[in-house]
Amino acid sequence: MTAQILDGRATAQVIYDETKAEVDALRETHGVTPGLATVLVGGDPASQSYVRSKHKRCAEVGIRSFGRELPADATQAEVEQVVGELNANPDVHGILVQMPVPDHLDDEAILAAIDVEKDVDGLHPVNVGLLAMKGREPLLAPCTPLGCIEFLDRYGVDIEGQEAVVVGRSNLVGIPVAMLLLHRNATVTLCHSRTRDLAEACRRADILVAAVGRAEMIQGDWIKPGAAVLDVGISRVEDPSRKRGYRIVGDVEFETAKEVAGYITPMPGGTGPMTVAMLMRNTLKAAQRAAGAME
Amino acid sequence: MTAQILDGRATAQVIYDETKAEVDALRETHGVTPGLATVLVGGDPASQSYVRSKHKRCAEVGIRSFGRELPADATQAEVEQVVGELNANPDVHGILVQMPVPDHLDDEAILAAIDVEKDVDGLHPVNVGLLAMKGREPLLAPCTPLGCIEFLDRYGVDIEGQEAVVVGRSNLVGIPVAMLLLHRNATVTLCHSRTRDLAEACRRADILVAAVGRAEMIQGDWIKPGAAVLDVGISRVEDPSRKRGYRIVGDVEFETAKEVAGYITPMPGGTGPMTVAMLMRNTLKAAQRAAGAME
After folding, report:
1. Which end of chain A is more exposed for a tag (fewer CB within 10 A), N or C?
2. Given A7, A115, A121, A251, the catalytic residue
3. Does A128 touch chain B (CB under 8 A)?
4. Which of A175, A185, A186 sits opposite B133 (nearest CB)?
């Protein structure tokens, strides 16, 4: 048996189309165009490229984008000043500070300075807190975890009552995706570097989320037959057969895993595109709330 | 084999003695007496009794206590007004609103109105958020979960790398104790009413925390030999052999479980007394922080 591929690019495109229709509707009914502001500190080429691709998607779905760039030696006060201005700007509904910021800056204080209603990355402590509470929900949740849930829903994978195993406990992915799965009534296990028998834990998973960044650590024989496997890790491994000398792989060894899993994300083209799609949707949602147009 | 009993009354007493010594030291070095304010809305006898017992413990360890009582028909604004006064009162270092409050009140808004630095119940969304983040810690964490960890530490039960299973996902116990166990590097599984095979999940646990409130649901054959079992649930079951006609039991069937477990809390006399002890320690900690006397 070969797993069904969870196609991030195609699914993201569907979400872009849906988002564009909602953006158009919001403009017509409320006269509001959603706006996303990115804050980039320093000139890291990878970060610049991420920011550019987000702006490109904004244009595609009709979201206005605002790009703020600060030099690599910007002070904490300068960054927080920019965040404060964006908080106060009614045309900006979502604020994304591209991480990582240079080491001399306090990234936690920057995240906490963002207005919770504009926190489209879902990383403000209050949004994290609401996500970690039964019966509550955050104004906005982190994009990569949302993309994982969206994949399961779009491909008809049940969550309720299933055993979900999350490998990795980062603030960006592991912990929030565990909380989202818990809200959807999965039985959730959080594993990490100190987990004694990781293979055994993975073998229990009906839904397996891998988010540690260790190349191809999870192999086919760690996977329960029929499981849904969501690979969030991203690593480069040397590959002399490629012109650029490397290839991008996930935490899951795709070739062996796809023979066992029921559903699996490719890398690249899996959870990555979904993350950007969820950012667009979070920005739309923030604008709808600000306009009093939430369903 | 019979399990070692995790004695809540004796352990709490040790913590009271330690706390009293630290309270005395804070008064001598900084001229500050820790203060705990309780807010009781309505005259529920059980709540009155809980509040009284907390004040009694305060007196025992040298913490000044402030009792505010409001009628059962107090408005949201009146309750938040009282919380605001206590936030502003420099003699008050901890504020505890006795839950549950009457149905017409918004308990979440009340909890969010408490100054995060005085949030000795650890239920403010910001403290919940910090608890749910890797590399962060809340100013104050919830008392019952803290009591569970304290038990394990005082009795020398390893946490790191162990399989911990938490049954129940309440905001008061289940989710925060899972987060505390995760911070201590346990592999953590959160189970609940939708978990397919709860017995099987419990059997994996080196550390089992039961917090659902279903009388004696977890029996001896659900427990891994040698496990540490922390019972937080509390129920009344009819018992004609008792003069009052009932007895208090936990979520764990103590008689069968103690033959299998390595460590087990009794009910009553287990996690309950530890909760009050942690409240005293949280109040001390809040006063130490306010006085600039944190270690």
Report:
1. C
2. A121
3. yes
4. A175
Q: Active site includes A121? A: yes
How far is the C-alpha of B181 from the C-alpha of B176, rounded, in Å?
Answer: 9
* CB A279 within 8 Å of CB A54: yes
Residues 6 or more apart whose Cβ sits within 8 Å of residue A240: none
Instruction: Pull the structure tokens for residue B112.
Output: 């969010």
User: Under a CB-based contact definition with an 8 Å cutoff, are residues B228 and B263 in contact?
Assistant: yes
> Could you tell me the pLDDT band of residue B1, with boundaries at 50, 70 and 90?
low
The answer, as to whether pTM is greater than 0.90, is yes
CB spacing of B175 vs A135 below 8 angstroms: no
CB-CB contact of B127 with B116 (8 Å)? yes
Query: In Å, how far are A9, A12, A274, A291 from A15, measured between CA atoms?
Result: 10, 5, 9, 21
| B294 has pLDDT over 90 | no
Residues of B in contact with A108 (CB under 8 A): 136
**pLDDT single digits (tens) A56-103:** 999 999 999 999 999 999 999 999 999 999 999 999 999 999 999 999
pLDDT-derived band at A1 (thresholds 50, 70, 90) equals low
Do B62 and B24 contact (CB within 8 A), yes or no? yes
What does the alpha-carbon distance between residue A89 and residue B29 come to, in Å, rounded to a whole number?
48
User: Is-catalytic flag, A73?
Assistant: no
| Cα(A283)–Cα(A277) distance, integer angstroms | 10
For chain B, what is the radius of gyration of the CA atoms? 19
Rounded Cα distance, A164 and A166, in Å: 7
Under the banding of pLDDT at 50, 70 and 90, the label for residue A295 is low
Domains of chain B: 31-116 (3.40.50.10860), 143-272 (3.40.50.720)
Sign of the CA dihedral running B21, B25, B31, B32 = negative
CA distance B221 to B223: 5
Q: Which residues of B touch A128 (CB under 8 A)?
A: 128-130, 132-133
Identify which of B23, B121, B123, B96 has the alpha carbon closest to the alpha carbon of residue B64.
B23
Is the CB of B131 inside 8 Å of chain A's CB atoms?
A: yes
Q: Which helix (H) or strand (E) holds A230?
A: strand A228-231
Dihedral of CA atoms B236, B237, B241, B244 in degrees, nearest 10, equals 30
- ipTM for the complex? 0.94
| Cis, bond preceding B176 (omega within 30 deg of 0) | no
CB pairs under 8 A between A and B: 109
User: Residues B104-115: pLDDT tens digits?
Assistant: 999 999 999 999
Using CA atoms of A26, A29, A32, A36 in order, give the dihedral in degrees to the nearest 10.
0
Reported in sequence order, the residue ranges of B104-193 that DSSP labels E, i.e. its strands, are: 163-167, 187-191
Per-residue DSSP letter, B270 = S
Q: What is the DSSP letter of B3?
A: P
pLDDT exceeding 90 applies to what percent of chain A?
Answer: 98
B179 to chain A, any CB pair closer than 8 A? The answer is yes
